[in-house]
Every structure is written in structure tokens, then in C-alpha cells.
Amino acid sequence: MVDKNETIGTASWMNGHAVTARIERGQASKLTIALIGNQAFGLMNFRGALIRRLVGQGHTVVALVPDYTPATRATIRDMGAIPLDHGISRTGLNPWIDGRAIWKLRATLKQIAPDLVLAYTVKPVVYGIFAARLAGVKRRYALIEGLGHAFIHAGTIKQRLLQGFVSALYGFALHLTDRTLFLNADDRAEFSRRGLVPEERSQVVGTIGVALDEWSVAPPVVEPITFLFIGRLLYEKGVAEFAAAAEMIRADFPSARFAMVGDLDSNPSSLQRETLEDWVSRGLVEWPGHTDVRPWIAHASVFVLPSYREGFPRATQEAMAMGRPVITTDVAGCRETVLDRVNGFLIPPRDVHALAKAMRHFLDEPALIASMGAKSRDLAEKHFDVDMATNRLLDAIDVPR
């Protein structure tokens, strides 16, 4: 706990340079809470509601990610949190580099002296929880937002070795938590089956939710009928199936549009730029890159996420809040968003023909766009409200609300 007017000098590291950040509190804080993530964009978009709620309750929030820019740092400050850098890279497994990053994060946490740490995404969970234990942080929570690349792809010897290594790291770190939180029951069951987490110290919290008033219903779009994908351009998100289905559909419905909003990624399963440029040049898909998704959802007819596995996809919930029907896969994290043939269609993963068939339903019967879209909004209001989701998360990390 930090006393009134106390100032802490904290060293953080980014791109190999030491940066000094001073944390000043003008009044006593109820709790000091450290959030450890892997990306400033994700922090702002997926933890923003939690930060605002905690700050509004009088807690001090320290938000640690490795890639702040002046703009993202200012945004986090505007939310009322304290932005600090940590040196844990998003990808790669280099024992020397990662070991130094853990030790530096330990020093940062020791100086901040938070009452609790909440870490999310793979490396912040594995390394952040360990660093918090070394720093003497009493309460440690991990949020598992999906299984990730290592668990989805295990076909080659290299992939199986990676999965085994990541599993061992998870098993070590998650036994150091007070509680491990999951977005869906399938992921919790998988981690429990593998012995990675003590079942009595794990919990499903469900979606992180969306601010429904910020994602208002848009009129249905039936001319031209447009299918929209939003997400990182990873093969495991089903981008290849989306493009292949687009090619099949356009043979019979040349006016149909297909758009992919998102960026290429450093993830090993990222789509290659040459492949993407080929799709665009052949007119299979439109690709605006990483941009504001609201106008794209507003001008879309149907949202499509043919993913192999998810935690609880935020983009699907945003599209549902704006009144869009959904085509997605019958897999963990995705099936939770769709009632089959009510607000969209559930299809098997990796099945281009099933995806194209689901798309044809809307092309053959455009009235489904409005009727199923209305059901999507109803479901979003009942299950995906951000305030209800934040309440569940606060309860799970034992913070009064």
C-alpha cells in the first residue's frame, strides 16, 4: 500500500534503453493493481473498461506492456492509469533475453509493490507471474484468453516440442497463481486435463464484454451483400478458408463483397504478404489493413470468423452489438457467440464448402440479414454487456465492486 504523497522511482526498459518513470499519488489508494500484458493496443481496447472501473473505485492501476508509443501512453494516462514499459517481447523464446526481462520486471514490481497482479496473454502470464512471485507480490492472477499458436498447431515434431515446452512453462507459472481465469470452459478443461492448473484454483469468467452504447445497431446491408472478417491475419483464424469461400461464391454471385480488416502479424502462423496481395489483386478480398472497424461493420451484411479456436472473440461481439448475423466455427470460444440458425450459422473448422454454404444462405435469402442480425443484438444485450463482464472479473480477482 502506498501512503499519501509517496513517490516511487521505477526503471523500465524498452528497446534496450533504460527509462525512468515516476509514480506519484496525490492521495492514499485503496489498492495498487498491476496489469501485465503484451501490447498497448490490446491493453487499451480489451482492458480499458477494467482500468476505468478500478480507477473510478479509487485504486491505483499500473499498466505494463512492452510497446508504448507517446500516443498510447497518453491514452492510458487519460484513463487514469500509470503506463510503464516492461521488456518481455511478444514472441520468441530466448532464455538469456527472457531471463533478463523477468529479472527487470521483478525489480519494477518490487518497487511498485502492488497488492495484486493480473497478467494476461502467454508470455506475460508465464514470466509476469514468476516475476511477481520473486518480487513478493501476495496476490497473483492469470487470465488465459485462448490457447494460442502452440496448442492449435502440433503436427510437426518442432510444433510438438514447442507445445511441450509452453505447457511446462504454463504448468510452472499457473501453480504460482491464486487463481487462473479462463474465457471459456473448453480451455479450462484442456488445461486441467493436461495438469497445468489446479482445478480448485481456476474459474471461467466468460467474455470481457463490449460497451453496448458505443456499438449501436446499424441498418442491415443487403446491396451489395458483404461478408466481413476482422482479426489478425493468421491461418488459424481461418483466413485461407475465407478467401477460398470468397472465390467459390463469386463464381455465382460476382457482386458479393468480401473484406478482411486486420494486419499481418509476427506470429508464426501469420499470412504471408505475397499471398494477401495475390488475393487482393485477383479481387477475392478487400483489405484496408488495420483500421477503425466500426464503419466496416456498419457497411457489412454478415460477420465471418472461421477460426480454429478462440478465447472469446471480441470482434464477433462487436459485430453482434451492431446487429450483424454471424458465421463462425463450432469450436471453443466461437460457439459461445452463435445460436445455430438463430443469429447465424455454426460450421465445422477448416471446411471451405461448409463456409460457402452458410454464406449462400444469406445470398439466397437476404431477409435473414435483418432477422438474424436483430437476434445478434438481443444476445449481445443479454450476455455481452461490458459492465456485467467487468463485475465478474472483479469478483474473480477478489476486488470489491
Please give a structural write-up.
The protein is 41% helix and 19% strand. The chain has 15 helices and 15 strands. The longest helix has 18 residues, at 95-112. With 401 residues, the protein is an alpha/beta fold. The chain has helices spanning 40-46, 48-56, 70-78, 95-112, 122-134, 149-152, 157-174, 185-193, 239-252, 273-281, 294-298, 314-321, 352-364, 367-383, 386-396; strands at 7-14, 17-24, 32-36, 60-65, 82-85, 116-120, 139-144, 179-182, 202-204, 226-230, 257-261, 286-289, 302-305, 326-329, 344-347. The protein folds into two domains: 7-209 and 386-396, Glycogen Phosphorylase B (Rossmann fold), CATH 3.40.50.2000; 212-383, Rossmann fold (3-Layer(aba) Sandwich), CATH 3.40.50.
Task: State the main characteristics.
401 residues; alpha/beta; Rossmann fold; 2 domains; 7-stranded parallel sheet; 6-stranded parallel sheet; 15 strands; globular
Tally of discrete structural domains: 2
Oligomeric composition of the shown chains: single chain
Which CATH class of the largest domain?
Alpha Beta
From the spread of the alpha carbons, the general shape counts as: globular
Tally of extended strands?
A: 15
Element order: H for helix, E for strand: EEEHHEHEHEHEHHEHEEHEHEHEHEEHHH
- Note the beta-strand portion: 15-25%
Main beta sheet: strand number and arrangement?
Answer: 7 strands, parallel
**Integer-rounded radius of gyration:** 22 Å
Helix percent band:
40-55%
**What is the name of the CATH superfamily of the largest domain?**
Glycogen Phosphorylase B
CATH architecture tag of the largest domain: 3-Layer(aba) Sandwich
Secondary structure category: alpha/beta
Spatial gap, N to C terminus: 19 Å
What's the number of helices?
15
Question: What value does the average pLDDT take?
Answer: 90
CATH topology of the largest domain: Rossmann fold
Strand order of the largest sheet: 5-4-3-6-7-8-9
